[in-house]
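Continuing from the previous page...

OK, I double-checked the sequence for Lipoprotein signal peptidase against my notes and this is the correct one:
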Amino acid sequence: MSLKKSTLLILIILLIDQISKIYIKTNFMLHESVEVFSWFKIYFIENDGMAWGTKISDFLTFMSERTAKKCLTLFRVVAIFGIGYWLYRSVKNRGSKILIIAIALIFAGALGNIIDSVFYGVLFGESMGEVAEFLPETGGYDTLLHGKVVDMLYFPFYKGYLPEWVPVYGGQFFTFFEPVFNIADMAISTGFLMLIVFNKQAFAKND
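Thanks. Re-ran it with the corrected sequence; updated structure tokens here:
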């Protein structure tokens, strides 16, 4: 797979990801939802940059929230250059098509969420209790590197109390699938899944 084709794939995913996020950000208030099907909702939440709606404070408990956020954003900016170099070398060395597609998906997803983390704080107004304005006259809701990632895809396939016989969680209220995510998260997860499932084909050596 050529560099031109992999770049086109990245641009398509990035475009879909950012269009969906900007639409949600400028049309929904935080925590507003729309039911598409009983098992699928558009549900607007924001997070500090962890995948699948995870809170950064759940992992970097030894840092303040803002310091942890900035460190995570800077780490991801550095990481994206590493992923980009990995993609470039894989194309140049004629790596397998599966490998190049997988890396391109991971790169596109990571870049999509980085854009939110780096720029959304200065580009958009607050979403709590109101629909955010793009480039508000009073300034954005935060500073550079402190933007929040927009998530909106929610698939609550099952909600209810688990049977008492279920170990540990029996009798508790349970939702499957709980995380709220975005297109970028899907791209990253798909890329990693491809590398795991098609590991031998992805890393096959060319003769």
